[in-house]
Amino acid sequence: LNLLKKMSKLFYGCVTLVLFFSVSVINNKNPIFAVFSLILVFFNITIVLLLLEVNFAALTMVLVYIGAVAV
Length: 71
Prior knowledge:
Blueprint: H1 2-27, H2 31-51, H3 55-70
Helix pairs in contact: 1-2, 2-3
């Protein structure tokens, strides 16, 4: 039960960060900071997918999206 509480806190924390960094992507005037925020959005979505046990989608997010934006 304690592990479930920790996982739910991590889930809601990551979802909150996804929302915060998504707004940050839209509102940033500097494109470098906008791309950095976008990478953080993708990273937090990957954590959410791992918590939901959708491993293939999480791996795809890391390899395709974060890899392509980082290049």
